[in-house]
Amino acid sequence: MNVRLSLQEQIRRKSVKMQKTFDTIGKHDRSHFILSLEQLADKNYPFPGDDGIVPTKKKYKKVSPNSPLFSVDCEMCETSNANRALTRISIVNEQGDTVLDTLVKPDGYITDYVTQFSGITAKMMKGVTTTLEDVQTAVQSLLPPDAILVGHSLEYDLQAMKMAHPYCLDVGQVLNYTNGNSGLRNSLKNLSELFLGENIQSAYGHCSYEDAWAALRLAQLKLKNGIVFGNTSFGWKYTEYAKQDDEVCEEKKEIQSKQSCSGCSQPTVVECTVRNCRCRFVSVPDKCVRCIREGQNEQGDFDWAQSLPVERDKTASPIATYLKKDKMRSVMCAFDRDDLDLMDSSSKK
Fold first, then answer.
1. Of 3, 154, 239, 241, which residue is least crowded by CB atoms under 10 Å?
2. pLDDT digit string (tens) for 13-23?
3. Conformation bin of residue 11: beta by default, left when phi > 0, alpha when psi is -120 to 50
Protein backbone atom coordinates (compact mmCIF):
# COMPACT_ATOMS: atom_id res chain seq x y z
CA MET A 1 0.00 0.00 0.00
CA ASN A 2 1.25 3.46 -0.88
CA VAL A 3 0.73 6.56 1.24
CA ARG A 4 0.51 9.95 -0.46
CA LEU A 5 3.35 12.27 0.50
CA SER A 6 2.68 15.76 1.81
CA LEU A 7 3.94 18.73 -0.21
CA GLN A 8 6.57 19.37 2.46
CA GLU A 9 7.86 15.80 2.20
CA GLN A 10 7.96 15.99 -1.60
CA ILE A 11 9.98 19.20 -1.43
CA ARG A 12 12.27 17.75 1.23
CA ARG A 13 13.06 14.70 -0.90
CA LYS A 14 13.60 16.78 -4.01
CA SER A 15 15.85 19.18 -2.11
CA VAL A 16 17.95 16.29 -0.80
CA LYS A 17 18.31 14.93 -4.35
CA MET A 18 19.30 18.35 -5.69
CA GLN A 19 21.76 18.92 -2.84
CA LYS A 20 23.56 15.69 -3.68
CA THR A 21 24.00 16.94 -7.25
CA PHE A 22 25.18 20.33 -5.97
CA ASP A 23 27.75 18.70 -3.66
CA THR A 24 29.08 16.67 -6.59
CA ILE A 25 29.33 19.29 -9.34
CA GLY A 26 29.35 22.51 -7.30
CA LYS A 27 26.15 23.89 -8.82
CA HIS A 28 22.50 22.98 -9.24
CA ASP A 29 21.42 20.75 -12.11
CA ARG A 30 19.37 22.97 -14.41
CA SER A 31 17.21 20.09 -15.53
CA HIS A 32 15.60 20.07 -12.06
CA PHE A 33 14.00 23.45 -12.75
CA ILE A 34 12.47 22.92 -16.18
CA LEU A 35 8.76 22.28 -16.61
CA SER A 36 7.59 18.68 -16.81
CA LEU A 37 5.37 17.35 -19.58
CA GLU A 38 2.34 17.64 -17.28
CA GLN A 39 3.16 21.26 -16.47
CA LEU A 40 3.65 22.13 -20.14
CA ALA A 41 0.22 20.71 -20.94
CA ASP A 42 -1.42 22.32 -17.91
CA LYS A 43 -0.12 25.79 -18.86
CA ASN A 44 -1.22 25.40 -22.52
CA TYR A 45 2.27 25.37 -23.98
CA PRO A 46 2.19 24.73 -27.75
CA PHE A 47 2.95 21.26 -29.09
CA PRO A 48 4.22 20.48 -32.62
CA GLY A 49 1.46 19.87 -35.14
CA ASP A 50 -1.13 22.03 -33.37
CA ASP A 51 -2.27 24.97 -35.51
CA GLY A 52 0.94 25.07 -37.54
CA ILE A 53 3.26 24.85 -34.50
CA VAL A 54 6.83 23.83 -35.40
CA PRO A 55 9.57 22.57 -33.04
CA THR A 56 12.60 24.72 -32.29
CA LYS A 57 14.88 21.87 -33.45
CA LYS A 58 14.56 18.77 -35.57
CA LYS A 59 16.60 16.79 -33.04
CA TYR A 60 17.48 17.56 -29.40
CA LYS A 61 20.06 16.54 -26.82
CA LYS A 62 19.31 15.67 -23.22
CA VAL A 63 19.66 18.57 -20.83
CA SER A 64 22.58 18.63 -18.38
CA PRO A 65 23.93 20.90 -15.63
CA ASN A 66 25.85 22.74 -18.38
CA SER A 67 22.96 23.23 -20.82
CA PRO A 68 22.90 26.90 -21.89
CA LEU A 69 20.13 29.34 -20.98
CA PHE A 70 18.50 31.53 -23.63
CA SER A 71 15.90 34.03 -22.47
CA VAL A 72 13.16 35.02 -24.89
CA ASP A 73 10.47 37.67 -24.84
CA CYS A 74 8.00 38.75 -27.50
CA GLU A 75 5.94 41.84 -28.08
CA MET A 76 2.57 41.50 -29.77
CA CYS A 77 0.10 43.81 -31.49
CA GLU A 78 -3.53 43.33 -32.39
CA THR A 79 -4.18 42.63 -36.09
CA SER A 80 -7.05 41.97 -38.44
CA ASN A 81 -6.21 38.25 -38.23
CA ALA A 82 -5.25 37.77 -34.57
CA ASN A 83 -5.60 39.34 -31.13
CA ARG A 84 -1.92 38.70 -30.34
CA ALA A 85 0.40 38.70 -33.35
CA LEU A 86 4.18 38.68 -33.04
CA THR A 87 5.73 42.04 -33.92
CA ARG A 88 9.06 41.93 -32.03
CA ILE A 89 11.19 39.17 -30.53
CA SER A 90 14.39 39.33 -28.48
CA ILE A 91 16.60 36.44 -27.42
CA VAL A 92 19.36 36.95 -24.85
CA ASN A 93 22.21 34.60 -23.92
CA GLU A 94 23.56 33.91 -20.43
CA GLN A 95 25.98 36.82 -20.63
CA GLY A 96 23.06 39.19 -21.24
CA ASP A 97 24.06 39.87 -24.84
CA THR A 98 21.54 40.02 -27.67
CA VAL A 99 21.61 37.06 -30.06
CA LEU A 100 18.38 37.94 -31.87
CA ASP A 101 16.32 41.12 -31.91
CA THR A 102 13.98 41.96 -34.74
CA LEU A 103 10.66 43.47 -35.69
CA VAL A 104 8.23 41.12 -37.44
CA LYS A 105 5.59 41.92 -40.03
CA PRO A 106 2.42 40.08 -39.00
CA ASP A 107 -0.16 38.59 -41.32
CA GLY A 108 -2.95 41.04 -42.02
CA TYR A 109 -2.81 44.68 -40.96
CA ILE A 110 -2.24 46.04 -37.45
CA THR A 111 -5.43 47.39 -35.87
CA ASP A 112 -3.88 48.38 -32.52
CA TYR A 113 -0.17 48.79 -31.79
CA VAL A 114 -0.83 48.67 -28.03
CA THR A 115 2.24 50.91 -27.72
CA GLN A 116 1.85 51.40 -23.96
CA PHE A 117 2.55 47.71 -23.44
CA SER A 118 4.34 46.59 -26.61
CA GLY A 119 6.62 49.57 -27.18
CA ILE A 120 5.76 49.23 -30.89
CA THR A 121 4.82 52.26 -32.99
CA ALA A 122 3.63 52.70 -36.56
CA LYS A 123 6.89 54.50 -37.38
CA MET A 124 8.94 51.52 -36.19
CA MET A 125 6.96 49.08 -38.33
CA LYS A 126 7.27 51.10 -41.53
CA GLY A 127 9.20 49.10 -44.12
CA VAL A 128 9.50 45.93 -41.99
CA THR A 129 9.55 42.83 -44.20
CA THR A 130 10.77 40.12 -41.78
CA THR A 131 8.17 37.36 -41.49
CA LEU A 132 7.28 34.84 -38.83
CA GLU A 133 8.84 32.12 -41.00
CA ASP A 134 12.12 34.10 -41.04
CA VAL A 135 12.08 34.19 -37.25
CA GLN A 136 11.34 30.47 -36.95
CA THR A 137 14.25 29.58 -39.24
CA ALA A 138 16.59 31.88 -37.29
CA VAL A 139 15.54 30.40 -33.94
CA GLN A 140 16.05 26.86 -35.22
CA SER A 141 19.54 27.82 -36.35
CA LEU A 142 20.58 29.80 -33.27
CA LEU A 143 19.51 27.49 -30.46
CA PRO A 144 21.78 24.56 -29.57
CA PRO A 145 19.99 21.19 -29.23
CA ASP A 146 20.09 21.25 -25.41
CA ALA A 147 19.12 24.90 -24.93
CA ILE A 148 16.87 25.78 -22.00
CA LEU A 149 14.43 28.56 -22.86
CA VAL A 150 13.79 31.06 -20.07
CA GLY A 151 10.91 33.47 -19.80
CA HIS A 152 7.95 34.70 -17.80
CA SER A 153 4.63 33.12 -18.81
CA LEU A 154 6.71 31.65 -21.61
CA GLU A 155 3.75 29.83 -23.16
CA TYR A 156 2.44 33.14 -24.57
CA ASP A 157 5.75 33.92 -26.25
CA LEU A 158 5.96 30.45 -27.80
CA GLN A 159 2.35 30.72 -28.95
CA ALA A 160 3.18 34.00 -30.70
CA MET A 161 6.26 32.38 -32.27
CA LYS A 162 4.15 29.31 -33.22
CA MET A 163 6.98 27.15 -31.91
CA ALA A 164 7.35 24.36 -29.34
CA HIS A 165 10.33 23.67 -27.08
CA PRO A 166 10.74 20.79 -24.60
CA TYR A 167 13.07 22.51 -22.10
CA CYS A 168 11.39 25.55 -20.54
CA LEU A 169 12.14 27.40 -17.31
CA ASP A 170 9.35 29.80 -16.33
CA VAL A 171 10.46 32.26 -13.64
CA GLY A 172 6.82 32.94 -12.83
CA GLN A 173 6.50 29.26 -11.95
CA VAL A 174 9.64 28.83 -9.82
CA LEU A 175 9.43 32.20 -8.05
CA ASN A 176 6.26 33.08 -6.16
CA TYR A 177 6.40 35.27 -3.07
CA THR A 178 2.64 35.36 -2.38
CA ASN A 179 0.82 32.04 -2.71
CA GLY A 180 2.42 29.39 -4.89
CA ASN A 181 -0.53 27.02 -4.45
CA SER A 182 -3.02 29.34 -6.15
CA GLY A 183 -1.64 28.75 -9.64
CA LEU A 184 -1.33 32.50 -10.20
CA ARG A 185 2.05 33.96 -11.12
CA ASN A 186 3.61 37.15 -9.81
CA SER A 187 4.23 39.65 -12.59
CA LEU A 188 7.68 40.00 -14.11
CA LYS A 189 7.70 43.66 -13.08
CA ASN A 190 7.05 42.81 -9.42
CA LEU A 191 9.55 39.94 -9.40
CA SER A 192 12.21 42.24 -10.85
CA GLU A 193 11.58 44.93 -8.27
CA LEU A 194 11.65 42.47 -5.37
CA PHE A 195 14.58 40.24 -6.31
CA LEU A 196 16.68 42.43 -8.63
CA GLY A 197 15.92 45.93 -7.40
CA GLU A 198 15.18 46.86 -11.04
CA ASN A 199 12.26 48.92 -12.33
CA ILE A 200 11.20 47.59 -15.74
CA GLN A 201 8.16 48.13 -17.96
CA SER A 202 8.06 51.83 -17.19
CA ALA A 203 5.72 54.49 -18.52
CA TYR A 204 7.88 54.67 -21.66
CA GLY A 205 6.70 51.21 -22.72
CA HIS A 206 8.01 47.68 -22.77
CA CYS A 207 11.22 46.46 -24.38
CA SER A 208 11.43 42.77 -25.21
CA TYR A 209 15.19 42.78 -24.56
CA GLU A 210 14.70 44.28 -21.10
CA ASP A 211 12.00 41.73 -20.22
CA ALA A 212 14.14 38.86 -21.49
CA TRP A 213 17.13 40.15 -19.51
CA ALA A 214 15.05 40.41 -16.32
CA ALA A 215 13.74 36.85 -16.73
CA LEU A 216 17.29 35.61 -17.31
CA ARG A 217 18.64 37.29 -14.15
CA LEU A 218 15.76 35.88 -12.10
CA ALA A 219 16.42 32.38 -13.46
CA GLN A 220 20.12 32.68 -12.62
CA LEU A 221 19.23 33.79 -9.10
CA LYS A 222 16.96 30.77 -8.69
CA LEU A 223 19.60 28.35 -9.99
CA LYS A 224 22.12 29.80 -7.58
CA ASN A 225 19.93 29.47 -4.48
CA GLY A 226 18.00 26.24 -5.04
CA ILE A 227 14.46 24.93 -5.17
CA VAL A 228 13.04 26.51 -1.99
CA PHE A 229 14.33 30.03 -2.74
CA GLY A 230 11.66 32.56 -3.67
CA ASN A 231 8.65 30.25 -3.32
CA THR A 232 6.43 30.69 -0.28
CA SER A 233 4.60 27.41 -0.88
CA PHE A 234 7.93 25.66 -0.22
CA GLY A 235 8.41 27.42 3.12
CA TRP A 236 10.50 30.38 1.91
CA LYS A 237 10.02 33.66 3.80
CA TYR A 238 10.70 37.07 2.33
CA THR A 239 11.49 38.52 5.77
CA GLU A 240 14.56 36.28 5.97
CA TYR A 241 15.63 37.22 2.44
CA ALA A 242 15.18 40.94 3.14
CA LYS A 243 17.79 40.78 5.91
CA GLN A 244 20.48 39.87 3.40
CA ASP A 245 22.69 42.60 2.04
CA ASP A 246 23.66 40.85 -1.18
CA GLU A 247 23.72 43.17 -4.15
CA VAL A 248 21.93 41.38 -6.98
CA CYS A 249 21.80 44.24 -9.47
CA GLU A 250 24.48 44.35 -12.13
CA GLU A 251 26.07 47.42 -13.62
CA LYS A 252 25.39 48.35 -17.20
CA LYS A 253 28.25 47.63 -19.55
CA GLU A 254 29.98 50.27 -21.60
CA ILE A 255 27.72 51.20 -24.48
CA GLN A 256 28.26 49.33 -27.73
CA SER A 257 27.85 50.90 -31.15
CA LYS A 258 24.98 49.37 -33.09
CA GLN A 259 26.15 47.07 -35.84
CA SER A 260 24.88 46.49 -39.33
CA CYS A 261 24.52 42.99 -40.71
CA SER A 262 27.79 41.65 -42.10
CA GLY A 263 25.81 40.03 -44.91
CA CYS A 264 23.35 42.65 -46.11
CA SER A 265 24.07 45.84 -44.10
CA GLN A 266 20.60 45.81 -42.50
CA PRO A 267 20.35 46.64 -38.77
CA THR A 268 20.66 43.61 -36.49
CA VAL A 269 18.70 45.04 -33.53
CA VAL A 270 15.65 47.21 -32.88
CA GLU A 271 15.90 50.77 -31.65
CA CYS A 272 13.30 50.60 -28.91
CA THR A 273 11.24 53.45 -27.49
CA VAL A 274 12.27 53.01 -23.83
CA ARG A 275 14.44 55.88 -22.61
CA ASN A 276 18.01 54.84 -21.73
CA CYS A 277 17.02 51.22 -22.21
CA ARG A 278 19.39 48.46 -21.19
CA CYS A 279 19.29 47.04 -24.72
CA ARG A 280 21.54 49.89 -25.86
CA PHE A 281 24.37 48.86 -23.57
CA VAL A 282 25.06 45.29 -24.69
CA SER A 283 26.78 43.41 -27.49
CA VAL A 284 24.62 42.77 -30.52
CA PRO A 285 24.63 40.06 -33.24
CA ASP A 286 26.63 40.60 -36.43
CA LYS A 287 23.93 39.11 -38.67
CA CYS A 288 20.30 39.93 -39.22
CA VAL A 289 17.51 37.36 -39.07
CA ARG A 290 17.48 36.59 -42.78
CA CYS A 291 21.23 36.11 -43.04
CA ILE A 292 21.34 33.39 -40.42
CA ARG A 293 21.86 30.18 -42.38
CA GLU A 294 19.81 27.09 -41.64
CA GLY A 295 22.84 25.05 -42.69
CA GLN A 296 24.53 26.09 -39.43
CA ASN A 297 21.79 24.34 -37.50
CA GLU A 298 23.31 22.00 -34.89
CA GLN A 299 21.22 18.90 -34.17
CA GLY A 300 21.00 16.35 -31.37
CA ASP A 301 19.94 12.70 -31.18
CA PHE A 302 16.34 12.80 -29.88
CA ASP A 303 13.14 13.95 -31.50
CA TRP A 304 10.76 16.37 -29.79
CA ALA A 305 8.62 13.77 -28.00
CA GLN A 306 11.61 11.81 -26.68
CA SER A 307 13.13 14.97 -25.24
CA LEU A 308 10.09 15.99 -23.20
CA PRO A 309 10.88 16.00 -19.47
CA VAL A 310 8.57 13.52 -17.74
CA GLU A 311 7.84 14.02 -14.05
CA ARG A 312 9.50 11.11 -12.27
CA ASP A 313 9.22 12.33 -8.69
CA LYS A 314 6.92 9.97 -6.80
CA THR A 315 4.11 11.56 -4.84
CA ALA A 316 3.51 8.38 -2.82
CA SER A 317 5.69 6.03 -0.81
CA PRO A 318 5.19 2.43 0.41
CA ILE A 319 3.76 2.32 3.90
CA ALA A 320 6.49 -0.18 4.79
CA THR A 321 8.92 2.76 4.66
CA TYR A 322 7.13 4.41 7.56
CA LEU A 323 6.67 1.18 9.54
CA LYS A 324 10.37 0.46 9.33
CA LYS A 325 11.54 4.01 9.97
CA ASP A 326 9.27 4.63 12.97
CA LYS A 327 9.36 1.00 14.21
CA MET A 328 5.57 0.91 14.19
CA ARG A 329 3.75 -2.42 14.38
CA SER A 330 0.35 -1.19 13.26
CA VAL A 331 -1.28 1.71 11.47
CA MET A 332 -4.85 2.99 11.17
CA CYS A 333 -6.16 3.28 7.60
CA ALA A 334 -9.39 4.39 5.91
CA PHE A 335 -10.76 3.40 2.52
CA ASP A 336 -13.63 4.50 0.34
CA ARG A 337 -16.25 1.75 0.38
CA ASP A 338 -16.21 1.52 -3.44
CA ASP A 339 -12.47 0.88 -3.37
CA LEU A 340 -12.84 -1.64 -0.57
CA ASP A 341 -15.44 -3.62 -2.54
CA LEU A 342 -12.94 -4.01 -5.40
CA MET A 343 -10.29 -5.62 -3.20
CA ASP A 344 -9.86 -9.37 -2.94
CA SER A 345 -10.54 -11.11 0.36
CA SER A 346 -6.90 -11.20 1.50
CA SER A 347 -6.51 -7.46 0.93
CA LYS A 348 -9.69 -6.74 2.83
CA LYS A 349 -8.43 -8.77 5.75
1. 239
2. 888 888 888 88
3. alpha
